[in-house]
Hints:
Structural class: alpha+beta
CATH topology of the largest domain: Beta-galactosidase, Chain A, domain 5
Number of helices: 19
Number of strands: 33
Helix content: 25-40%
Bound molecules: beta-D-glucopyranose
CATH class of the largest domain: Mainly Beta
Largest sheet: 10 strands, antiparallel
CATH superfamily of the largest domain: Glycoside hydrolase, family 65, N-terminal domain
Strand content: 25-35%
Shape: globular
Amino acid sequence: MKLEHYPHHPWKIIEEGWNPDNVEASESIFSLGNGAMGQRANFEEHYSGPTFQGSYVGGVYYPDKTKVGWWKNGYPEYFAKVLNAPNWIGIDLKINGVVFDLNTVKAVKAYRRELDMQNGLYTRAFTAELENGLELSLESQRFLSLARPELGVIQYSITANQEVNVEISPYVDAGISNQDSNWDDQFWAIDAVEAQAAQAYIEAQTLKTAFSVGTFMASSLFEAQEALALEGAAFQTDKKAGTTYQHQLAAGKTLSLLKLGGYVSSRKHEKTALKAAAQTVLDDAKNLSFSALLAEQNEAWAAVWKSADITIEGDVKAQQAIRFNIFQLNQTYTGEDAGLNIGPKGFTGEKYGGSTYWDTEAYCIPFYMATKNQKVARNLLTYRYLQLDRAIENAGKLGFTKGAALYPMVTMNGEECHNEWEITFEEIHRNSAIAFAIFNYTRYTGDLSYISEMGLEVLIGISRFWAQRASFSAAKNQYVILGVTGPNEYENNVNNNWYTNYSAQWCLRYTAEQIEQLRSTAPEEAARIEAKTNFSEAELEQWNKTAEQMYLPEDAALGVVLQQDGFLDKEMVKVADLDPKERPINQHWSWDRILRSPYIKQADVLQGMYFFEDQFDLDTLERNFDFYEPFTVHESSLSPCVHAIMASKLNKNEQAYAFYLRTSRLDLDDYNAEVEEGLHITSMAGTWMSIVEGFAGMRVIDGQLSFEPNLPEAWEGLSFKINFRDTIYTLQLTQGRFCCTVDNEADCSVVVRGEKHRFTGSIELSV
Ligand code: BGC
């Protein structure tokens, strides 16, 4: 797909012109979701060209048996996949008895897709030329209701320039498969297929995990907005059920099909009551018109935007991009279901199947914490607390004891799903991100109760793991952490990855502090947790000793920390000197060549300096940034946002802006040449951070909101809202001006460029 395929618009994503080569990319870009379910932007009607079909139900997964070339002890038995679910959007169409298929028509004109991010309405329209001068215009409008999480709505309208016979058959279909399947297993067993008059229902069950999902639909037809009293003929096969309508459509008249559909699942309903639940969803909506349902949708999205929108004046490209990121994050996770999490591809593809990665804690929590009620971020932390026993079991499988916890690299239910030894066993830094998120949440919200109610147990498990995983090197007289993979996955099995060692040291110290703190503020609580976890004073001493003597590789001459032992032995050719035709290197080079190279997939040392920036002076941050950035290829979506934030902090404004565009338009402009696989949802929260923490320079320091604004030159203004400790702050920044308004009359204060200002209502300053 060519760069800038989708024209710049503040609220819309638009595609104009038919090109079958773009179908799969646009299926990703125009994906819809409402937190409970989601789908790629597949066509409703039959399409024989290349397409990647995908409909997903949040939290419904299948444990696909692990397939590896060489089994290693400790590998998980399965990889949990949120899988392609039965399809409710399908509409078969025959015109004068011939199946309509965009891939085989004579010509396609005025093809247009449009996604309105203000309300999540997706529209596809075109005119297709068929035989004998017949032209058929089709418009399909679709949305997944935010107000009714089990309901989706389609209005499908057909107009022809000649009188035609239309046979239109809306259906539900369980004859689907996953592209990604280890053993070509069957993932679903179909329990019921039913069609009656204008309704159809399929109940299917995931094999092994036994989630039952009811896929349902109801349909009605209109001509010129008037309901048609057409009797449809119900049909069903062993996998598919629907209704077929026949209609003689006069030239120039428009026939519209209103299709309501969606999913009910056993995650929310008793299995025996699923069908009734589907009927209730339909009954509640059946008397509402498309416009009435859309009005609810407008309202629900308006409420989201009210607290989450960011406006940028003077740069439509940047404006569109941030809204696309915020929109997708809200389509993926609404925070209402504590059993769900944020998958790296959300509901837009199959890659990364499982739902939860370290991405949630390292990237997503700040976004949800600031744009929603703080209980949403707490839910995300609670999710990990509820999986602590599994993390302890997981560490146990690898030989760790006494309550040491290793959280999985990838999980649905707390069990590890990842199965490449260099990541599963070695990319252990994920534990630190979970501890960091507890710290980050507490720092931001001031809510100390999470630590005593849940967090401290998590921290103890994580610190126990680090204390056991670090080993003492007699040669160095220090603790080392051997055989790891840092965030930069283009290095495997290295010794003393600085980020891992530093963050482990930080975890040990932070946990020790939290224990001491609780002992002094709530001794009974501390005693309860210590008894529950069998905590001993000897452990505390060991943690302090390990932290104190942790080895942190550095190069004194360069004045930088070392990504890992031996990093400087590599042939240090900068990325700028690589042949652009060889990039992305992960699509052109052998793995062996990548591993020997100095190229950094994603922020690694800089990830650590971003998390723990207050531990480093500006010169140190700058030396490390200047050293590592030129070797970073940013082939993980999670990378450019961290570099954007650091570049802003270091006043490297042009670089910061370039990284911002890269993170925010990663999918729209397909920087990593893979958008057809799905969108990079978790890094979209990093995009939000690169504006709020980058250009606005927001931090929480000593319980105070603090800002160091540094807007890109082209931006005339930036405004955003954040929910900080139950007060909504509206920030309006222009070049040289800072304005902050709050939604109450309480005394407030903000720190701007290091100076504290008290105010009530609002404050405006020159900066
Ligand atoms: C990154 C990981 C990340 C995963 C899911 C990988 O490419 O290297 O850090 O957790 O994608 O986003």
